[in-house]
Amino acid sequence: MRTDANERAAIGAMLLDPDHADEVRDVLQADDFTSPAMRSIFRVVSTLRDGSRPVDLVTVTDELRRSGDLEAAGGPAAVADLLGACPNAAAAEHYARMVAGDALRRRVARAGAEIAKTAADPSITPEELPAQAERLLADGTSREIVRTDTDLNAIMHEVVAEAERLHRLDGVLAGISSGYDALDRMTGGWQAGDLIVLGARPSVGKTSLAIGMVSAMLAAGRRVGLVSAEMPRLAIGQRLLALRGKTDLHGIRTGLLTDADFGRLLTAAGEIRGELLVDDTASPSWAHITSTTRRWVRRRSVEIILVDYLGLIRPPPGTEGKRYEAVTALSAGLKGLARDLRVPLIVLSQLNRDAEGRVPGLQDLRESGAIEQDADLVILLHRERDPGTDDLRTETTLRLAKHRNGPTGAIRLVFDPSVATFRAV
Q1: Tell me: the pLDDT tens digits for 173-207?
Q2: Which end of the chain is more exposed for a tag (fewer CB within 10 A), N or C?
Q3: Residue ranges of the alpha helices (H) in 152-205?
Q4: Beta strands 421-424 and 345-350, pairing class
Q5: Superfamily of 175-424 according to CATH
């Protein structure tokens, strides 16, 4: 069938049976129709259904007349003709999907035209083009054309299947290991779709803990994505080598290494397994982060993503200068991204100044209560200061302050400044 015939068949099915009207509405929106007349009738039927009013030829015609859209729809005779435009009302969902497919093709074509226009814009740098193109394509094609509801039987089937999978693991960690056994026992490993927030005051060691986790994940052969607005890729590589080669980080950064140290460094570089993708763009935009991480998961099958850190992400459009609103939008966006990509997403966040000098709590997450609300797990790091020198002590408390689906608790760690990492006590 041609596009016009599919559109007429879908609208005809809506007029013939209210249940079929709902099937079509599950798949389509008004702007999926090319015909202004079909868009008008679709909106009228939707209005009637939302108001629990009857849907038939008479009520639809009356509503079109009342709204002033009857002539635009072709008049009463044209509306009546639609009843014969549907060969089989039971195939309403099929016609709707055909219309949706055609609409998707048009959106892709429009996105392609916008991408071509963007490519010709001299104000956009070549480095920005891939992210802009991915954003335009994602914006144009992100609408789902399938039903999103699931009945109880299907949900129970998924629950039982997942329980059986976990049972067969027989004690093997279900999620991705953090590298710290005591933490893994509380979390079961990082789980797909979870947003994990790691909070601490500056210099306590958020990035060091995150890179230590990355090192453990790579050693386990995991594929990791790291958005690092805080630290350049060279510094990240140096820390990973220091950890793997048990070599003094300061020596690596200054070149003050013995021949034996350098030999261990070369060996460590060859031993690092897994796959790590790093984007060290300074002050990345939200659009850049979403396009980059989606590409990682789609093309490189990245299993877990870390973002360092929340405060360095540029505010989404419309929230510039409104830090509370910006953090709220970013927090919700990160949670949605974790669910959409079906990977664990760890985001680092600074704590409020009020947390300085005391054990921090959830209320200390900076600038927005939305972070605490959106996070599935919140980890807070704390190190006391030496009263004599005011230096941070190496003894560290890692507290799992929020765990949406499990226990909370605390573990003791010790910071090793020679390789900038935390070790279990």
Answers
A1: 889 999 999 999 999 999 999 999 999 998 899 99
A2: C
A3: 152-169, 181-187
A4: unpaired
A5: P-loop containing nucleotide triphosphate hydrolases (3.40.50.300)
